[in-house]
């Protein structure tokens, strides 16, 4: 048997095989997301042994504070990364939108899976069935602790009020249904679908009402950057179009120096080999905002012209099977759009938003 920090097991035929351990948060959504990636790996590699290791993270423990107020950037990821570092797990499944745009050294995103709906959805208190944000009564209270959602929706629906709501999806739906505090809550459509609660979606928000968060709706697999075997194994899970969109979105957010605590929103689309990125920043009440769109070609280029460097990470993502030139252009697009918004005053808007949010 090979020496090393890994765990091995003997299968029914006396053959020694490596056990692949997947780390996950304990919430039901995290378990569902992890199982779906585990099932895909099982289909692709029927001989591997999978083991799921569940743990709590800071983000799961601090339930009474809005996410945007807890200074820590890697709220949902730190404990899982510690376990990766100590070889207690070999890969970790996250919602891409919870992963900081700069990962700690030694880690990389080895797969970004095909994106589900990236849009936000309205879930109504049952007594308001049939209503929309537009038709809810004046001063109806909407639950969200996302500065991004609140900023856009305050501007668009000035008759509504917005209050923080925390906890995992189960807790939030319970708070909505069993109390009278909220008329509706806003959640990512992708999470609701994965939980099997699609029928609770009464309205999917159009980009004109609410643009989504960077990486929203996509799952990411984080691994040790030096673990070539695991990187190779998970690399087949990459969805090329999702990878290019998310590299552009993450490059945009990183260059703006935004985290999960600033009102930044995006929209991306690939059409006829063109990648379109719309990005926006908002003041907390949405009254001040900047929004621009740029595009770039993501056509697969002539191989001979392409500098192949399999080790390059772009905004934390390693995707050696996706054309490197297209990845470079996607990253450049995100940076260029951020530069454009910064030249128009994005920094001032975000600085004020951060200060006001900290003072809340
Ligand atoms: C981040 C935000 C939220 C999560 C901020 C934002 C929502 C917080 C809130 C960065 N992470 O979106 O502007 O509403 O108080 C989260 C969810 C999912 C991943 C739940 C949700 C599931 C969807 C996905 C929490 N992270 O947004 O409804 O995989 O993208």
Structure in words:
The chain is α/β, with parallel strands linked by helices. It folds into 2 domains: 7-117 and 214-359, Double Stranded RNA Binding Domain, CATH 3.30.160; 120-205, D-Maltodextrin-Binding Protein, domain 2 (3-Layer(aba) Sandwich). Helices cover 32% and strands 23% of the residues. It contains 10 helices and 14 strands. The chain has helices at residues 28-44, 58-61, 78-85, 147-156, 169-178, 189-195, 228-235, 240-256, 324-343, 346-358, and strands at residues 8-10, 16-25, 49-55, 91-95, 107-112, 120-124, 141-143, 161-163, 184-188, 201-204, 219-224, 264-271, 274-282, 289-297. Strands 1, 2, 3, 4, 5 and 11 form a 6-stranded mixed β-sheet that branches. Strands 8-7-9-6-10 form a 5-stranded mixed β-sheet, sandwiched between helices. Strands 12-13-14 form a 3-stranded antiparallel β-sheet.
In short:
The protein is an alpha/beta fold and 360 residues long.
């Amino acid at each position: 048997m090979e020496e090393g920090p890994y765990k091995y097991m003997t299968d029914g035929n006396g053959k020694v095989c490596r056990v692949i351990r997947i780390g996950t948060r304990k919430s039901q959504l995290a378990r569902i997301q992890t199982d779906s990636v585990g099932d895909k790996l099982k289909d692709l590699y029927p001989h591997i042994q999978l083991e799921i290791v569940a743990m709590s993270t800071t983000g799961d423990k601090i339930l009474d504070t809005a996410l945007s107020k807890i200074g820590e950037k890697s709220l949902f990821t730190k404990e899982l990364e510690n376990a990766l570092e100590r070889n207690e797990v070999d890969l970790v499944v996250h919602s891409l939108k919870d992963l900081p745009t700069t990962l700690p050294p030694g880690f990389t995103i080895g797969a970004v899976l095909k994106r589900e709906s990236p849009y936000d959805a309205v879930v109504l208190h049952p007594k308001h069935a049939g209503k929309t944000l537009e038709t809810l009564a004046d001063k109806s209270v909407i639950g969200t602790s996302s500065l991004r959602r609140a900023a856009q929706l305050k501007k668009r629906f000035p008759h509504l009020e917005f209050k923080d709501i925390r906890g995992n999806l189960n807790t939030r739906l319970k708070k909505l249904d069993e109390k009278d505090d909220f008329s509706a809550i806003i959640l990512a459509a992708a999470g609701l679908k994965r939980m099997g609660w699609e029928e609770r979606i009464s309205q999917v928000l159009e980009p004109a009402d609410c643009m989504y968060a960077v990486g929203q709706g996509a799952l990411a697999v984080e691994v040790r950057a030096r673990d070539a075997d695991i990187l190779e194994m998970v690399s087949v899970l990459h969805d090329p179009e999702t990878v290019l969109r998310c590299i552009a979105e993450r490059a945009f957010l990183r260059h703006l120096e935004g985290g999960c605590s600033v009102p930044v929103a995006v929209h991306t689309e690939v059409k006829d080999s063109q990648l379109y990125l719309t990005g926006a920043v908002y003041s907390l009440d949405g009254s001040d905002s900047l929004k621009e769109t740029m595009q770039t070609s993501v056509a697969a280029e002539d191989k001979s012209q392409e500098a192949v460097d399999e080790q390059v990470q772009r905004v934390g993502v390693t995707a050696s099977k996706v054309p490197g030139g297209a990845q470079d252009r996607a990253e450049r697009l995100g940076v260029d759009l951020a530069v454009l918004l910064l030249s128009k005053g994005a920094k001032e808007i975000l600085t004020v938003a951060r200060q006001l949010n900290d003072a809340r």
